[in-house]
Design goal:
5 strands; Nucleotidyltransferase, domain 5; 210 residues; 8 helices; alpha/beta
């Protein structure tokens, strides 16, 4: 990391897929992370991005919706190929350390967690991924806030996150595979970055003088 750049100049784009909408009982099925600077430029090449399936406890209950719509992921998470929670936590923490350096003593100098409705992912990270969580700022950048404002102003022109070409238009260094689909955490981090770029281009005025 460039010593002149503080950790809070980075955004850790993060998304999870989980076993139930009831977060008190939910388990993480998949986690993905991609780090950019504040200008939405990749901090490191895509090969270093994190995309990990996490093993489900043998007694974990999965909601019927998740069983139906994420059946392949659930099967992976029930197999030996999935990482255990401690492995996933170490992988994510190491990724942040590689880019930003060890966690700053002052929490407000650590990188910000970013994504859509990222407070939900943050709750799960705090519960299951403690080493990763301790490397992050107390503030979050939630793209959903801008989504709601955009929908209020332009209800007929939603950002289409399900179109891979649209994602690549606004985030040219996107690196997901052609067969990646919605409800995939790695695809969704790309979609969130592209969506923020879209709002920056179309929602904000160039003149920021007060």
């Amino acid at each position: 990391m460039d010593s002149a750049v503080r950790g809070d100049q980075y955004l850790v784009w993060f998304d999870t897929e989980y076993s139930s909408l009831h977060l008190e009982e939910a388990h993480i099925l998949q986690a993905a992370a991609l780090i950019t600077d504040r200008s939405l430029r990749r901090a490191v090449p895509s090969e270093k991005d994190v995309r990990v399936a996490i093993r489900l406890p043998h007694d974990a209950v999965v909601s019927p919706w998740v069983e139906e719509n994420l059946s392949e992921l659930v099967a992976l998470c029930r197999s030996p190929l999935a990482a255990n929670l401690a492995e996933a936590d170490r992988l994510l923490a190491h990724y942040v350390d590689q880019v930003v350096g060890p966690p700053a003593a002052q929490e407000n100098k650590r990188p910000l967690l970013a994504g859509n409705s990222v407070h939900l992912d943050w709750r799960l990270a705090q519960k299951y991924l403690p080493e990763f969580s301790k490397r992050l700022h107390f503030r979050h950048l939630d793209v959903t806030t801008l989504k709601l404002e955009w929908q209020n102003r332009c209800p007929d022109h939603d950002f289409n996150k399900d179109d891979p070409d649209n994602i690549r238009r606004y985030f040219p260094t996107a690196s997901f595979a052609v067969n990646d689909a919605k409800h995939d955490a790695y695809y969704d981090v790309h979609a969130s970055i592209a969506e923020l770029a879209f709002y920056r281009q179309h929602l904000f005025r160039a003149d920021t003088s007060v």
